[in-house]
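call fold target=7-alpha-hydroxysteroid dehydrogenase
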Amino acid sequence: MSMSIQGKTAIVTGGCRGIGLAIAQHFVDCGANVMIADRDEAALEQAVSDCDEGNGKVRKFSGNICEKLAMANLLSATLDSFDRIDILVNAHRFVEASDPLDTDPGVLEEMLRQNMISGLRLSQMVAKRMIKQAEGQTDLVQAGAIVNLSTLAASRPVPQMLGYSIACAAQEQATRGLALSLAPHRIRVNGVRFSSVMSHELKCALKEDDSLRSQIVAGTPLGRIASADDVAETAQYLVSEGARFVTGQIISIDGGRSLADPVTAQGL
């Protein structure tokens, strides 16, 4: 089984820190070209510096990828830099607590826009390019692969984060729907659902309450908090030829936690 992504070109959104950065770094280490997209210019500069090491395989795009123009510019920048797009990883996430009885529709709409709609629209845009690139190729050649990130909140609602839970569930359904729609074009779409990962958000939560660490470990059958590399390696598998007959699947990276432990907002 080949997990090689050598020479492939990937866009990774939300790639300037945490899980997104780990995926970008891992892809570069595996020989891929990577366009890191995010809004924080300073963090992007540091991310490129950390990932590139002078090999010219990393570029950055700064912009609000929830906006259609920014998506189009991201696509153009990637093609200008690397001539093609083979992989898209929608790693951008926006997490915010919300009152389940809040009557302000703007909270839910923003959760959906940030965590599902923007990724769906970018996937549609990138898929059109992948289809064009694949014209004239044999039916056995993969045209492209898309990976969407979600969390355990998609299947086990967190009341104090209702909007985010709904957005994660919507993201997973979008993954399945796109997988079915794009399969005839030889584009595979899969998802990675994770629980507690040592991400930027969790590190901040642990600084405020270190007892959270022992709670998470105790509730995880494999007895540790996942690293961002655990997610990155799963993403690599899903975009590689090793997963060439896998589409529409949501792979859980949770150490068995979904089997045994109630979800908490801090652990997402």
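return ok
The chain has a mean pLDDT of 89. The CA atoms of residues 176 and 248 lie 5 Å apart.
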